[in-house]
């Protein structure tokens, strides 16, 4: 009878929220370096603008099972943004001066999915405070889909031609698998207000894949594909406030941030174009790809949403 009248000590929690985000992709510095080194190795100059982000948003879904002092959790955080930037590269190829200006529009998406377990170091002896030691696995995937329009000018002596070009949807994909460990602290400030803090570290490895194809109106083309390996480290920090409407439903406001460091290595470039690959392009591939490059990215979002709790024995 007592079990029928009182809620059980075990919980099943379902949370969902969304809100605005601040997204800075780990891919941005690499792409900027490609133009910088490309111009330098062609005895010229190269430049790519800082990316202009718009429409950035974040989403969070969490399914958690709490039993005794244990926590089992499935969580996914997704970030989206639109990107636009312009680039310029100028140099000398086969005694001709080549200049290309490009305009790129793109869509970015990052997905962080984790399967975690946690143990309350206080073993639920404190009704207002829990400190979970977390451990588990996460995947961190990022997708960069972009379209490009370009104007290529080729000058040799007094002759000069201008070739417009366009690119279909190009893509760069990063797939990471990481080991995650951290702490999750929950403190009940009052009967309706709770505070939540999470701090985590992760480390892992994965794959890098990039494909670009540019067509010119004169029938020319440039194709480039990269296949490689990556290693990654990440830092997660979340802070939130939760307001209980009743024993089953609550609203939350959460600031979630994620910083990551990505290192590419053993990248194999596959290139082809209608005019042949120059020695400077091969040197650029050696500098930028196989020896690897380091990238940093960050995401942060203010997420508003709800949590439903089902209590059982």
Structure description:
The chain is mainly beta and 313 residues long. The protein has a single domain, classed as Lipocalin. The chain contains three helices and eleven strands. It has helices at residues 2-5, 28-41, 279-290; strands at residues 10-24, 45-48, 52-67, 70-93, 96-120, 129-156, 159-188, 193-216, 221-244, 249-273, 293-312. It has a ten-stranded antiparallel barrel. Helix 2 (28-41) packs antiparallel against helix 3. It is elongated and about 90 Å long. The mean pLDDT is 86.
Keywords:
313 residues, mainly beta, Lipocalin, 10-stranded antiparallel β-barrel, 11 strands
CATH class term: Mainly Beta
Q: Summarize the amount of helix as a percent range.
A: under 10%
Number of strands: 11
- Major sheet: order of its strands? 1-3-4-5-6-7-8-9-10-11
Query: Which CATH architecture is right?
Result: Beta Barrel
Structural class: mainly beta
Domain unit count: 1
What is the element string, with H for helices and E for strands? HEHEEEEEEEEEHE
Low-confidence spans: pLDDT under 50, at least 5 residues? none
Helical run tally: 3
Overall mean confidence score, pLDDT: 86
């Amino acid at each position: 009878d007592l079990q029928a009248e009182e809620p059980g000590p075990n919980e099943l929690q379902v949370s969902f929220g969304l809100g605005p985000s601040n997204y800075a992709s780990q891919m941005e510095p690499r792409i900027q370096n490609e133009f910088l080194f490309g111009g330098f190795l062609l005895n010229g100059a190269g430049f790519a603008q800082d990316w202009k982000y718009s429409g950035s948003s974040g989403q969070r879904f969490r399914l958690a099972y709490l039993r005794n002092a244990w926590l089992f959790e499935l969580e996914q955080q997704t970030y989206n943004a639109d990107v636009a930037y312009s680039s310029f590269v100028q140099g000398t190829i086969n005694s001709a001066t080549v200049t290309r200006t490009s305009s790129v529009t793109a869509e970015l998406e990052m997905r962080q999915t984790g399967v975690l377990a946690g143990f309350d170091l206080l073993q639920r002896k404190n009704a207002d405070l829990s400190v979970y030691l977390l451990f588990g696995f996460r995947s961190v995937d990022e997708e960069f889909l972009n379209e490009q329009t370009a104007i290529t000018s080729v000058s040799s002596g007094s002759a000069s031609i201008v070739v417009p070009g366009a690119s279909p949807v190009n893509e760069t994909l990063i797939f990471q698998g990481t080991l995650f460990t951290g702490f999750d602290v929950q403190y009940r400030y009052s009967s309706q207000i709770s505070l939540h803090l999470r701090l985590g570290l992760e480390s892992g490895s994965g794959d890098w894949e990039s494909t670009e194809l540019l067509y010119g109106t004169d029938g020319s083309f440039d194709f480039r594909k990269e296949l490689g390996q990556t290693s990654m480290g990440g830092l997660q920090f979340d802070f939130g406030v939760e307001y209980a409407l009743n024993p089953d439903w609550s609203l939350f406001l959460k600031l979630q941030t994620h910083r990551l460091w990505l290192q590419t290595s053993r990248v194999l470039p596959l290139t082809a174009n209608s005019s042949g690959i120059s020695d400077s392009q091969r040197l650029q591939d050696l500098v930028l790809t196989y020896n690897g490059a380091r990238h940093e990215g960050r995401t942060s979002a203010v997420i508003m949403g709800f949590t439903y709790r089902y209590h059982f024995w």
